[in-house]
Amino acid sequence: VWDVFHKTMTHPKRLRLCALQVQKKNYRQEKKRAAKELSSALKDPSVVITANWLKIRGSLKSWTKLWCALKPGVLLIYKTPKSDHWVGTLLLNACKLIERPSKKDGFCFKLYHPLDKSIWAVKGPKGENVGSITQPLPSNYLIFRAASESDGRCWMDALELALSCSSLYKLTAKAGRDGDLSTSSESSHILQLLQSTALTDAELANQQMENDGYSEKSEHDAQEDWDNGANENGGRLTEESDMDQSDELSPALQATSYVEQSQEEMAEAGEASQVETVSEENKGLIWTLLKQLRPGMDLSKVVLPTFILEPRSFLDKLSDYYYHANLLSEAAREESPYGRIKQVVRWYLSGFYKKPKGLKKPYNPILGETFRCCWLHPQTDSCTFYIAEQISHHPPISAFYVCNKKDGFYISGSILAKSKFYGNSLSAILDGRARLMLLGRDEEYIITMPYAHCKGILYGTMTLELGGKITIECEKTKYVAELEFKLKPFLGGSSSVNVISGKIQQGDELLATVDGHWDGEVFLQEKSGQQEHLWNPTPEVRSTRLKRQVVQLDQQGQFESERLWQHVTSAIVDRDQNQATQEKFVLEEAQRNQAKDRGDQPWRPRLFNLDSVTNEWTYTHIDTRPWDPERCLVQFEKHGVIQTKEKSQRRHKGLAYSRASAWACQQKVSERDTQIPLSILVSLPN
């Protein structure tokens, strides 16, 4: 029996069967181990294949340095290594990798979709819907520059490894979706990003034939190009003619880099935030100043003490009206003329609740001073730009231009700031008007401003209020809104502070009345008796308003507001009034010396010109053409010039591709996802 058993167990077929069983067991164990390792890598945020600074070229041919972190299946792009300012996520299973020649130092490589589809994920690693502001980046490729060739080769090796595992990433993502993997919040978002639908061979071939580069060469020529490129560069593809004349840096297409404003001051609603308590030392300064004044005197040439200054320029303060510019976007889309005038009034009221604590006056801008900023609109994938310039010093005139061409509106205007002293009070009068144009409607709204009134200078409590009657009028539709900002009466209580009232009418027909407080709730009463909230700056409204984007201090010109006044601002923030006064005197003295040097020669503004017909100041680079989605790509700004990047009519030379079957597993992206992400497109590089 033993002999029979021994012969049976040692038979070659039996031995091979046992060996096969052992191999299958090892195979299953190794497969589980690999899946477990990949699952752990996807679930563990600390797993990073490589991470370092890389320069990335934007669609406007300029470069910006961003932090790139390569994780299994995705390339995450951040502004800083802290990973708290996510810019965008590249799906590697939709990408091909290619080395790229460069005229400059360093090493360039390119990630791209061979069928010119989007390579961007819709959401971030933590489910973010909108990324941080950065330069405009292409939707279907990215060009990277490493600091040295060795660094670039390391990135190429790491990316090739990640690309070769793309199918495994997809399987793991499917397993996670089906419940086989327990994932954290961040890893689950990454797994969702890795899910994709493969293109069929027929779809791939059809889309390939539509590519200009593929249609210009035969399949044989394309095969030779692929083989030659791979042989000459160690098996890697190279892109040999992607640097034609259009790829050179074009000064007109480089754009300003904006960053989100870090902090701002905003007081609470009500009278308490509009009262200033003056110290004994500062009272002496006020009395010294008042001895020089006479009732009715214009204060534009009077040097004011720094303790009453708000640490920012008047050009900056004028931008407070656009934190809710999305209301103008909604007005442009509103079908009813009455609905549009209501929405414009709602936007107008949204600009007043933001105020500094106490009685503060912004800096009088220096002649030639400029200020620029913008607001990103996540809902409409657009951006509102604000440009202002001090075009005259005596009298002090500030011109401004606000534009969101994609959402269909712009505002142009100028303000002559005048101050009058009345003994125990003074008024700051904003003489001028703004023109709001809804491009798609061809409607122009003429808007005026209230005045600021300060009382209690000699006796009583120093208090700041808004007063006067304003109008918002559209000549085309005959709709007019009249609002009155009411000063607090002598015997009035807290409910009579910051009161506003008004009406909306068409011609002589009264349509609605308006009542409330300009820093709080405002109600609209229809003539039918129906009442609605016209405006209410609740904490939720304040927290969800548009975020202002500003230019970093080191990238500003010498005559930009923040850089120009930086030393005065620093001294005021440090409560060093003597130093603030000295720094302010330096600027004012320099301005007086420049005026002497000019003599009788008139000052010529850089960004605005005087319209000889209307006798109003208008933006030199104004563009009144409506947005054409078939032609317009992005609106951007550089050196104060707002312009629109349009699609080129030139046919680009494309790459010749072959081996279509190798791409049959690429991600199929919908038309919605092929659009450039907002945070990447509008946020404009230096």
Molecular structure report:
The protein has 686 residues and is α+β, with helices and mostly antiparallel strands. Strand 5 (96-100) and strand 6 form a beta hairpin. The longest helix has 32 residues, at 12-43. The chain is 27% helix and 28% strand. It has a 16-stranded antiparallel sheet that branches. It is built from 17 helices and 29 strands.
Q: What structural class results from the helix and strand content?
A: alpha+beta
- The average pLDDT score comes to 77
Helicity, in percent?
25-40%
The largest β sheet comes out as:
16 strands, antiparallel
Shape summary: elongated
> How many runs of DSSP E, i.e. beta strands?
29
Number of helices: 17
**Percent strand:** 25-35%
Distance between the termini: 88 Å
Compose a concise summary of this entry.
The protein is an alpha+beta fold and 686 residues long.
